[in-house]
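Amino acid chain
________________
===
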Amino acid sequence: MVEPSRPGAGVDVVIVGAGAAGSLAAARLAAAGKSVTVLESGPAWTVQSLVSSQIWGRRLKWGGPRVVLDGANPFGHSMAMGWGLGGAALHHYANWPRLRPEDFRLKTLYGRGADWPISYEELRPWYDLIQGEIGISGDAEAEVWRPPGAPYSQPPFPTFPQAETIAKGFAARGLRTAPAPLAILTEPKGDRAPCLFDGWCDAGCPTGALANPLVTYQKDAVRLGARFLAGCTVTRVNLDGRGRAAGVAFVDAKGEQRTLEAAVVILAASAIQTPRLLLASAGPGAERGVANSSGLVGQGFMAHALTSFMGIFDTPQDNHLGVSGGNLVCRDGWEKTRVPGGFGSREWVIASSLKPNDLIGIAMSRPDLFGQRLHAFMRDDAPRIAHMGALFEPLPLPQNRIELATQKDAYGVPMARLTYALAPETLALVEDAKIEGVAIMKAAGAKAVWTSPIVTNHALGGTPMGSSPADSVTDSYGRTWDAPNLFIYGGGLFPTAGAAGPTFTIHAVTRRAVDHLIDTWKAATA
């Protein structure tokens, strides 16, 4: 690891967070000739350090300061967040659908939430560009719900037995399925090998087939001269006398207090840690927190609700084959006003590969069984299980928010307090899907069906982009209204969430934003 610059030394850009957004930004800025330092609080993971093990894979989850969780539906923080180089995208499942045009105009079309300051058509070229660079497998023609865009650059995954079984249930109910769009290779691409179909996505994909940041933009950024410094915890965003970002204060891997001056500061530390840092950096001229003249920093946090469905069939389902992100997808029923009393879209993710325990674990799906009953279940029923899940769109409610807790971390910075509760409209979607999901499984021939409790995933919102300082924290390029050289990248920018895994959209939004920063560098740093 390269040692941090001495106190007072400066760079063109300092990026806080080495996940999907931070790694992509580092690669683009380094390619443009900028000096870039990325500060990451977690470990310096490498592809070589990844191991196909459920126990080992737990290390990739959040290991930083505790987040105080509150509300009727506490956020699944330990499951969702990342820790170290690669961030949450190091263990993500690579479901990469696009948001639909109506997802960008929620306020205009439905009187709910907010509108994005950009449309799908404005973001479409960036979706297409990222898709070609990363490599996405799928079948654009079969995916009839997909908005216009370039065809996928990788062939779709083969259909495995449990997907074939469940698809019959969807067909019997008049519902369509298609190969899931996945940022996982089915053919070689550069030095990356295709998927082995062994389902170790949650352990970081040791083969490199899954598009985690270590094998995509982070690798490029390092080659182009960007520095990634692990074990460095940023404690404050520093402002100058004009209210502009002057750099950051951080504690390095040796426990020493450091400062790093920069012409541009980019916060890409997650939709939880970025608001926490902004609020904790309050001071003269920013009494409510940095970039918080609107008072909106931390408000409108969103997380998708998820529910799983398990069915036992007469024949073995080979459920160990495939990928964690699912084999097929169904977006029939996407319409936001379809369910009486509900609001929002829904997506079915079909036939995720299963492991014995942990996320999407067979044994974990039956916490009511112990001892010999659990042994019998794992011996007799586990091979015949098929699985699918439903993902639901949340609403950006102001009461769902990140605030500073009274407790502090080891460096004296207040911890984040995250309050979260699903809207009644979202809960209505879940109840409707439970009825339909059980019917689908039974139509497919399941002899027994059960569902999981609601879990929450994907940290979004809290620093939304918008069209004016009155209703947002940044403009459409992530540039904060309060400090023209302070930028926010990542899922925190989302004004609304749709019912789709966010990582593809995070990449597209970041690529658009960072390319604009490069094109307008003089204005941003004036």
Summary: Residues 1-8 have pLDDT under 50 and may be disordered. The longest strand covers residues 257-267. DSSP finds twelve helices and 17 strands in the chain.
